[in-house]
Amino acid sequence: MQSIIEYEFSEHLNTSKATMESIGDSLEIAANLCINSLKNGGKILIFGNGGSAADSQHIAAELVGKYKVERKGLAAIALTTDTSVLTSISNDRSFGEVFSRQVEALANSNDIAIGISTGGTSINVINALKLARSKDCKTIGLSGRGGGKFDSCCNVNIIVPSGDTPRIQEMHRVTKWMLKQFTNKGIYILNVFFCPHKPESNCLCRKPQPGMLLEARDKFDIDMSSSWIIGDKEVDVQAANAAGISNTILVESGHTVDNTSSDAKFILKSIQDSIGIIR
Predict the structure, then answer these.
(1) Residue 255 — very low, low, confident or very high, per pLDDT cuts 50/70/90?
(2) Contact between residue 232 and residue 252 where contact means Cβ atoms under 8 Å apart
């Protein structure tokens, strides 16, 4: 029995690490889609079968109700809860239309449709995602096993890199918590800037050079004098200062920072500690 326990926890940790390394960009895109929809009067429709149906209800419950912080209720509907609707559509039409019929009735352009399927192959979920796209909704998939058929019907498909159903469902639950966390705070990412050069190229965009910050300034007309930079290395602070940003926070993030040599305005233990300072 102990070997089974150790194996399951080991597989969970391995899948967590692989998922963390692979879904970051997709998760950011999905969070932005949800936030922009809600800010513009849209709503989020969520659906899936079995355990994914339970996940759908959990997501909707904590968006409408509460997740971690007090805020206004957010418009979300799980299409897995009305037994009369579910059974009448399945009986009078087909189970393959059990979600798409509800999307047809409830979805408007600018809404979000989130389909959940561990293999990305559930026909009724795919049908609903396709119909949602035809109604100018943004579609998000939570899947695994390579994504199945979700890529063809989703604006973004968050794929857990595993073929094991329990592991995929565990990562879907972590993913939905992060989506709700971003949505709670209205945090979204305008753009991602990166240095494409090798370290030895001596380019102007790799920190401590300020190239990426200056590119962001020009693209979004940012007032650097009132901006903040949060980094976890001294080169982040140096790049900020070179770009004209004096409000700098250095987060230790598991490593010790030399308080006497850093030019950072504040040195904090965690990124959460910066919230009160920036406010």
Answers:
(1) low
(2) yes
Residue 233 placed within a domain: yes
Question: Is the four-CA dihedral 158, 64, 125, 129 of positive or negative sign?
Answer: negative
Note the pLDDT tens digit of each residue in 86-112: 999 999 999 999 999 999 999 999 999
Residue 194: inside a domain, yes or no? no
Residue where the block lists tokens 């604006």? 155
Nearest residue to 252 via CA among 262, 244, 242, 239? 262
Cβ(36)–Cβ(104) below 8 Å: no
Beta strands 138-144; 112-116: pairing state: parallel
Are 42 and 166 in the same domain? yes
Q: Are residues 120 and 252 in the same domain?
A: no
- Look up the domain containing 56 and give its range: 2-185
Which residue's structure tokens are 């399945």?
Answer: 90
Total length of the chain: 279
The mean pLDDT of the chain is 84
Q: Residue 142 maps to which CATH number?
A: 3.40.50.10490
Find the CATH number of the domain harbouring 247: 3.40.50.1000
Give the tens place of pLDDT for each residue, 124-148.
Answer: 999 999 999 999 999 999 998 888 8
| Contacts of residue 13, Cβ cutoff 8 Å, sequence gap at least 6 | none
Q: Is residue 165 domain-shared with residue 53, that is, in the same domain?
A: yes
Of 185, 211, 245, the residue that ends a domain is 185
Structure tokens at 94: 């087909």
69 DSSP assignment: B
How many C-beta atoms surround the C-beta of residue 223 within 10 A? 9
Residue 183 in contact with residue 74, Cβ under 8 Å? yes
Please tell me whether residues 93 and 131 are part of one structural domain.
Answer: yes
